[in-house]
């Protein structure tokens, strides 16, 4: 350490620096005065410039009368994505957003947009491609901007999976239509100096590609990859606003994929919990999400969260469930499973066996059996029967059979033995059971019938114990 005598103060150091430099004053004379004249536009140029008001004011009746006789906009993905709209699909990482987007884009390019229905979802596309059936809509050119998968990762999803002993990929792969164009991003490129952020640069490239190809249907996978790192709210608002302007200018139909995180596996899908999801949804015409089923790893479900042009049909009580599989081993896609409630799909204790039991209980109840009768013949408790009736199962969406005709007094088929004929007559008449070999009614069954009353059709109501 230096002692106090060897230290130099800041004032002394400043004096030493001042002594080392010599300043000379030079007289340069008066500064010149430069007149800045603003350019004046000629009257002709002002008149030739197009005048466009920010707002167009017209009577409301005229706005409504404009659509009279106009063709309805097409459905690109059922009611979730309508032609001419900007739709957003939220989902957790690995939930199948990209698989659904590719399947929907392939269907649009083939002229058979996906419809959420048991007999139409992904079936009509196969009918057009394999059976030569006519398309249900006009095939459209689709631009798919893939910002996540590499070319190898994308191709492996739609190529026959090789065995362990194979050294080359199989020649069996899915045949995409020629108007389905996939655009892959090169992550090795650097952002040009004229762009401030990576998002601005990528958006400019997307806009240039759309204008050069003339495509009207665009899929962006995904919005998170347009940012430099973690997508911030300000950057998400900028990108969505630019996409909205581009939609209006070029008449595009845009589907944007975005990640969403949930608090727990049992929480329902929403888009308003986080600020960034609310910001993204504010610029979208339609918002839907894809979620996971808790009791089946293959199942996903679609939930419509917001829409500006259609009614929301697929709400928390009526959700289409779709299963993830590989069609013929080389086309990763979804198949339609049925409609469920979100509470049923998120029930961690539910299983396919419980759903089958619920269907069976509901069928027996529709045939006229009471809950107590069902509990006895299926070896269940009354509480289990009641809970099975409350479960949303595929039986709820099946067409119900017509009312049953009156049961004839005699059996409709020839019984093999006399005892079997007597038993069938007893079941149809609702009389007490007869113990084998005694010819007397079964005491246990008689007590149960006395408690439950006569066997009469029950229209979904419970008895005093059910």
Question: Which features characterize this protein?
Answer:
466 residues; alpha/beta; Rossmann fold; 2 domains; 9-stranded mixed sheet; two-stranded antiparallel sheet; 15 helices; 11 strands; 32% helix; disordered N terminus
In CATH, the architecture of the largest domain is: 3-Layer(aba) Sandwich
Q: Name the helix and strand elements from N-terminus to C-terminus, one letter apiece.
A: HHHEEEHHEHEHEHEHEEEEHHHHHH
Average pLDDT confidence is 78
Supply the CATH superfamily name of the largest domain.
Answer: P-loop containing nucleotide triphosphate hydrolases
Helix percent band: 25-40%
Unreliable stretches: 1-8, 15-19, 31-39, 41-49, 450-466
Task: Please indicate the percent range of residues in DSSP E strands (runs of 2 or more).
Answer: 5-15%
How would you describe what is shown here?
- The chain has 466 residues and is an alpha/beta fold.
- 32% of the residues lie in helices and 15% in strands.
- The strands form 2 sheets. It has a 9-stranded mixed β-sheet. Strands 1-2 form a two-stranded antiparallel sheet.
